[in-house]
């Protein structure tokens, strides 16, 4: 529809391009939404499918696919307005649908503390925030891959979205008590990474571990495809942090640059530590370093200077490395909890550290670009020390709420559905759970049958000549 024409909203006739609409901001926000969506679909779908053992590729990919779809429907039916709507409680909004045209074509509204008002329709903001909710559930799934009953996962996704994610989002982003108090979470270090890592570890505890053979050896089935998924995750993060200011402005540009600087620094530090302590660089280690660098910069991407992004990248490449490679191996409790992909270390530790460092290094002038209040990190004096204390309190709230809510949700589900697959399914994997396998290859649990797998097998009827494994060796039955 061309500019100047009119669109029927179902309630009134309104201009298709109202005066308040900024086409550039709207285009960027929809682009950022798509980039964040691509992080999950297909980014994490591909990453999960290839980083796990071959027998779990389909199940792992499906858990991510299901979460993406289920979250979207729950989001527009109820959860968007629980996270960004009118207040019900100091930490929770009133749930209501975000589906009517009258609501979606109106100008987007955000809490008063945001310095820049969105100049685009509510429909854009609803979808943008959905992509964050979806990726949080998918990140959480990484802790319970390879053993959680798929029916339990299907029940868990909407319940956790309603009773856990919306609380953190409303409290820190949607106008809740932490938001009004002045705690900072620029783009999800606490709402997304800390909550997914803590809830993932909690879920891993209640679901139980993988079978011993999977815990002892769990190699990726396709390292190159794993890198492709990781690449989509990294590139999509420009929309993740670049869309947080709700506009295509200076702060958005700073956030995109800082995001990539932190990720690159973290990869280099993690890889160097692998070489120093293990004698060789690990591709999986590099991917983990990438993720920790991205998660760490997220709570302050548009609020810190680029030299600080390098500092955060160095911390992201070293502190989670120590927690995963040293502390985890020496902690008997952490050893008992089977966090399949180490989500606690790559997201909870990195996200928590990023939120605390933001409380130290948030630069006052950059803060003014997105926050209407006078905010600064402790490094810059003034009230910065108070800001750091606020970051600690906000982190403690997110941790406590996610441990409690995740535990209660899983205990309720356990009354009706087993949380863990039976051992006979765990031994087989995808074929037992879905009746499907990732690769059409012989040898994964089946015997080599010459009539099925030999050369030109489809053309043979017994007795007839066929080639036994090597070209040119013909045997008559």
Automatic annotation (TrEMBL):
<dbReference type="GO" id="GO:0008519">
    <property type="term" value="F:ammonium channel activity"/>
</dbReference>
<comment type="similarity">
    <text>Belongs to the ammonia transporter channel (TC 1.A.11.2) family.</text>
</comment>
<keyword id="KW-1133">Transmembrane helix</keyword>
<feature type="transmembrane region" description="Helical">
    <location>
        <begin position="392"/>
        <end position="417"/>
    </location>
</feature>
<feature type="transmembrane region" description="Helical">
    <location>
        <begin position="190"/>
        <end position="208"/>
    </location>
</feature>
<protein>
    <recommendedName>
        <fullName>Ammonium transporter</fullName>
    </recommendedName>
</protein>
<feature type="transmembrane region" description="Helical">
    <location>
        <begin position="307"/>
        <end position="328"/>
    </location>
</feature>
<feature type="transmembrane region" description="Helical">
    <location>
        <begin position="340"/>
        <end position="362"/>
    </location>
</feature>
<feature type="transmembrane region" description="Helical">
    <location>
        <begin position="61"/>
        <end position="83"/>
    </location>
</feature>
<dbReference type="GO" id="GO:0005886">
    <property type="term" value="C:plasma membrane"/>
</dbReference>
<dbReference type="InterPro" id="IPR018047">
    <property type="entry name" value="Ammonium_transpt_CS"/>
</dbReference>
<keyword id="KW-0813">Transport</keyword>
<dbReference type="InterPro" id="IPR024041">
    <property type="entry name" value="NH4_transpt_AmtB-like_dom"/>
</dbReference>
<feature type="transmembrane region" description="Helical">
    <location>
        <begin position="126"/>
        <end position="145"/>
    </location>
</feature>
<feature type="transmembrane region" description="Helical">
    <location>
        <begin position="257"/>
        <end position="276"/>
    </location>
</feature>
<dbReference type="InterPro" id="IPR029020">
    <property type="entry name" value="Ammonium/urea_transptr"/>
</dbReference>
<feature type="domain" description="Ammonium transporter AmtB-like">
    <location>
        <begin position="28"/>
        <end position="439"/>
    </location>
</feature>
<feature type="transmembrane region" description="Helical">
    <location>
        <begin position="220"/>
        <end position="237"/>
    </location>
</feature>
<feature type="transmembrane region" description="Helical">
    <location>
        <begin position="27"/>
        <end position="49"/>
    </location>
</feature>
<feature type="transmembrane region" description="Helical">
    <location>
        <begin position="283"/>
        <end position="301"/>
    </location>
</feature>
<keyword id="KW-0812">Transmembrane</keyword>
<keyword id="KW-0472">Membrane</keyword>
<dbReference type="InterPro" id="IPR002229">
    <property type="entry name" value="RhesusRHD"/>
</dbReference>
<feature type="transmembrane region" description="Helical">
    <location>
        <begin position="152"/>
        <end position="170"/>
    </location>
</feature>
<dbReference type="InterPro" id="IPR001905">
    <property type="entry name" value="Ammonium_transpt"/>
</dbReference>
<dbReference type="Pfam" id="PF00909">
    <property type="entry name" value="Ammonium_transp"/>
</dbReference>
<keyword id="KW-0924">Ammonia transport</keyword>
